[in-house]
Design brief:
about 200 residues; mainly alpha; 7 helices; globular
């Protein structure tokens, strides 16, 4: 992977060398929002400040959180906190990506996961993700919504959502090999394939 890409993406843990991505490291809320913002071209937010006391203006993910809040992709964990270091679960990741494309409901006709019951906040997002082969679960019958994801999984989910690949079978966790391409090009440079389907609706 290009060292420039790693330098730009390793913004939280300064102990990580600029030539490493640490794909097995846990993904935080700040990570997930930053990755999504970067993949969307790093747009300038229109908000004038944040209500969150734990996201200082000096934070490298400050604009990413402002943008995501403005787009109604994320909310705070309270009126005054965002909890940037809170670990991101599989349910959180799917919900963030689902909201990013406008929270579609036309494809939420059910899923085959016995741990994603109707009524859960992540039901529609996971159902949508399964329908578009963004995830195939951790087994044929489970999604494991409360399992935390690592940085490689976060970027793989995002890469697939952007139209860069699809999952034919097996757990989505097995698709981490697509990480170098997504980190080096799709996420950092914002250069990714212009495909139809969900890509055409992404952040419309």
């Amino acid at each position: 992977m290009e060292s420039t890409a790693c330098q730009r993406i390793n913004y939280l843990d300064k102990s990580v060398p600029a030539t490493r991505f640490e794909q097995k490291a846990s993904c935080s809320r700040a990570d997930m929002v930053f990755f999504l913002w970067a993949a969307s071209g790093r747009p300038e937010p229109e908000l004038q400040g944040l209500p969150f006391t734990d996201v200082p203006a000096s934070a490298p993910y400050y604009k990413a959180v402002m943008w995501a809040l403005q787009q109604h992709i994320v909310a705070g964990t309270s009126a005054t906190t965002f909890s940037p270091d809170m670990l991101c679960t599989r349910a959180h990741a799917m919900t963030i990506l689902w909201r990013a494309i406008g929270s579609p409901t036309e494809d939420a006709d059910g899923n085959d996961f016995n741990d994603v019951p109707c009524g859960k906040y992540y039901y529609q997002s996971v159902t949508w993700a399964a329908a578009y082969q963004i995830t195939s679960g951790t087994s044929n019958a489970t999604f494991s919504p409360h399992r935390t994801i690592n940085r490689a999984e976060a970027l793989t989910f995002l890469y697939i959502t952007k139209g860069g690949a699809s999952i034919a079978h097996g757990p989505c966790d097995a698709h981490a090999p697509s990480l170098p391409r997504v980190a080096g090009k799709e996420i950092i440079r914002g250069v990714y394939r212009k495909t139809k389907s969900i890509r055409s609706r992404f952040l419309r």
